[in-house]
TrEMBL record:
Keyword Lyase (UniProt): yes
Domain of life: Bacteria
Naturally occurring in which organism (per UniProt): Pannonibacter tanglangensis
Pfam families xref list: Cys_Met_Meta_PP (PF01053)
Gene3D superfamilies: Aspartate Aminotransferase, domain 1 (3.90.1150.10), Type I PLP-dependent aspartate aminotransferase-like (Major domain) (3.40.640.10)
InterPro entries: Cys/Met-Metab_PyrdxlP-dep_enz, Cys_b_lyase_bac, Cys_met_metab_PP, PyrdxlP-dep_Trfase, PyrdxlP-dep_Trfase_major, PyrdxlP-dep_Trfase_small
EC number, as in UniProt: 4.4.1.8
Pathway named in the protein's UniProt entry: Amino-acid biosynthesis; L-methionine biosynthesis via de novo pathway; L-homocysteine from L-cystathionine: step 1/1
One of the protein's GO biological processes: L-cysteine catabolic process to pyruvate
Catalytic reaction(s) noted: L,L-cystathionine + H2O = L-homocysteine + pyruvate + NH4(+); an S-substituted L-cysteine + H2O = a thiol + pyruvate + NH4(+)
Family to which the UniProt record says this protein belongs: Belongs to the trans-sulfuration enzymes family.
Protein name: Cystathionine beta-lyase
Alphabetically ordered keywords of this record: Lyase, Pyridoxal phosphate
Length: 392
C-alpha cells in the first residue's frame, strides 16, 4: 500500500482523527498495533550502533507510543512530545527538565494541589527555591524575576479557584530573561488553548482527563518547544519513563473523539452554570467561560472553548454540614476526585487556606463539579435534589 501525503493545513478535529495514524505501515488497519514487547532484535551487529535502527529497546518507544506522540505534536504545534505515567508525573518531569540546583522557580499560587506538594517537598531537596505568585500579575510578574529565575509555572484556569492568568504577558516577561514557561493545560486541552503558540515552552496535560475521557487510564503528556525539547528528552530518557502499551492505545482511542466530547461538556456546563447562578444559595460561579466570571475577558481573548470542570461557592449561611448533605443527596453526580470522564462528579471544596500569595479567599463552602455526558435536564434535576436536602 502506497503512502498518502496528508494536507499541510488541517483543522483541529481533522488532526484528532488522522494524526499519528499510518494504515499503510500496518496492512491497511486504521489503528496502530498495540506492541507488547521489551526486546528488539537486530539483523546484524552493524544495526546495533546508535541510530542505525529506529527501535532498539521498548523503553525508548515503539509504534504505539510513536502514534500518540505524533498525534499530540500535531495538535500542540510542538517540536516534540513525551508521555508520562500520570499528569503529576508529567508535571514533575517537565519541571526537572529545566531546573537545576541554585535556580529560582516562580509558581502560580493557584496550581493543582499535588503540584504544589511536589514543589514544596521535592524541589527544595535539590537546592531549588520555589516562590508562589499571585495569578493575576500578568506582565507585572517581571518584578519578581531574580538573576537565577529559571522557570515560571502557570495554570489557567487555576485549580479549585478557576482564576485566569494572562499567559501571553507572562511568557513575554519570561522571554526577556530567558526563563522557561511551563503550563498545566489540562482544563482547556490544546483544542481550546495552544500554549506553545502563546509563548509557553512546556505544555503539560493530565491525559487521564480529556484525552482518555473514559476514566480507565492514568497518563500524562508533555509537549515541548524547540528550545525546551533537548532538556526534556535527556531527563525523560535518564529517568527511564515508559507507559504500558495498552494504556497508550486507550489514550489514542480517546483522543479520536475528544473534540466532540468537549463540545458536549462545554454546552452542558454553560447551561448548568446559568441555572445555578439563579439559585438563592449560590454566591458565585467559578467558570471562566461564564459571562459574569472575573476571568471571562482573558478567557474570551485567548481561549476558543471551555471544558466541563467548574466550581461554585455557597452563600455564607450554608454550613459545612449542609454542604455535605447537598453532596450526599446527589445520585447522578458521583463523589470522586478525578474529572474529564464521561460521568459527572462532585467534590466538596474549602478554598480558604489553599493559597499563600494574593487576595484572601472566601471562608464558606464550595463545590467542584465535573460535568459529564449525561442529559443536562437530568443533571439539573439531580442538583435540585441536592438543594432540597438543605432546604430551598
Amino acid at each position: 500500500m502506497s503512502k498518502k501525503t496528508p494536507p499541510t493545513a488541517q483543522k483541529p478535529d481533522t488532526i484528532l482523527v488522522h494524526a499519528g495514524r499510518h494504515p499503510e505501515d500496518f496492512h491497511g488497519f486504521v489503528n496502530p498495533p498495540v506492541v507488547h514487547a521489551s526486546t528488539v532484535l537486530f539483523p546484524d551487529t552493524a544495526h546495533m550502533a546508535p541510530g542505525a535502527q529506529k527501535y532498539n529497546y521498548a523503553r525508548r518507544g515503539n509504534p504505539t507510543t510513536d502514534a500518540l506522540e505524533e498525534a499530540l505534536m500535531a495538535l500542540e504545534g510542538a517540536a516534540g512530545v513525551k508521555l508520562a505515567t500520570s499528569g503529576l508525573n508529567a508535571v514533575s518531569l517537565a519541571c526537572l527538565s529545566c531546573l537545576k540546583t541554585g535556580d529560582h522557580f516562580l509558581v502560580a499560587d493557584t496550581v493543582y494541589g499535588p503540584t504544589r506538594h511536589f514543589c514544596d517537598t521535592v524541589l527544595p531537596r535539590y537546592g531549588i527555591t520555589v516562590e508562589y505568585y499571585r495569578p493575576d500579575l500578568g506582565g507585572a510578574i517581571r518584578s519578581l524575576f531574580r538573576p537565577n529565575t529559571a522557570a515560571v509555572f502557570t495554570e489557567a484556569p487555576g485549580s479549585l479557584t478557576f482564576e485566569m492568568q494572562d499567559i501571553p504577558a507572562i511568557a513575554a516577561a519570561a522571554k526577556e530573561t530567558g526563563a522557561f514557561v511551563l503550563m498545566d493545560n489540562t482544563w482547556a486541552t490544546p483544542l481550546y488553548f495552544k500554549p506553545i503558540a502563546h509563548g509557553v515552552d512546556l505544555s503539560i496535560q493530565a491525559g487521564t482527563k480529556y484525552i482518555v475521557g473514559h476514566s480507565d487510564v492514568t497518563i500524562g503528556t508533555i509537549a515541548a518547544s524547540a528550545r525546551a525539547l533537548p532538556g526534556l528528552l535527556e531527563l525523560h530518557g535518564a529517568m527511564g519513563v515508559h507507559i504500558a502499551p495498552d494504556d497508550v492505545y486507550l489514550a489514542l482511542r480517546g483522543l479520536r473523539t475528544m473534540g466532540i466530547r468537549l463540545e458536549r461538556h462545554q454546552q452542558t456546563t454553560l447551561a448548568i452554570a446559568d441555572w445555578l447562578a439563579q439559585h438563592p444559595k449560590i454566591a458565585r460561579i467559578r467558570y471562566p467561560a461564564w459571562k459574569d466570571d472575573p476571568g471571562h475577558a482573558i478567557w474570551a481573548r485567548d481561549f476558543s472553548g471551555a471544558s466541563g470542570l467548574f466550581g461554585f461557592d455557597f452563600t455564607p449561611n450554608v454550613s459545612k454540614a449542609e454542604a455535605s448533605a447537598f453532596l450526599d443527596a446527589l445520585r447522578l453526580f458521583g463523589l470522586g476526585y478525578s474529572w474529564g470522564g464521561f460521568e459527572s462528579l462532585a467534590i466538596p471544596v474549602k478554598l480558604a487556606g489553599v493559597r499563600s500569595a494574593g487576595t484572601p479567599l472566601p471562608e464558606g463552602e464550595s463545590v467542584r463539579l465535573n460535568i459529564g455526558l449525561e442529559d443536562p435536564a437530568d443533571l439539573i434535576e439531580d442538583l435540585s435534589r441536592g438543594f432540597a436536602a438543605i432546604g430551598n
